[in-house]
Amino acid sequence: MTIEQYYRWINTKAGKKIKDFMNRLIPGLMPEPVPVRVPVRQEDRYNRR
């Protein structure tokens, strides 16, 4: 199973119930995805012509 398939499955109603059940049995088994902020270089945006 790829990461993309995992996130599609885990975001369904049944997937959330299974994830909650599994996390109650073994805490931290299926972690929540965490958004990652990517820094953007501001100077490049204004210096391009």
Describe this structure in words.
The chain has a domain at 1-25. It has three helices and no strands. The chain has helices spanning 3-10, 13-25, 42-47. It is mainly alpha-helical.
Helical content (DSSP H or I, runs of 4+) = 55-70%
Report how far the terminal alpha carbons are from each other.
44 Å
What portion of residues belong to β-strands? under 5%
- On the 0 to 100 scale, the average pLDDT is 79
Poorly predicted regions: none
Q: In one word, what is the shape?
A: elongated
Largest sheet features: none
> How many distinct helices?
3
List keywords for this structure.
49 residues, mainly alpha, 3 helices
Brief overview:
The chain has 49 residues and is mostly helical.
Topology, element by element:
Elements: H1 3-10, H2 13-25, H3 42-47
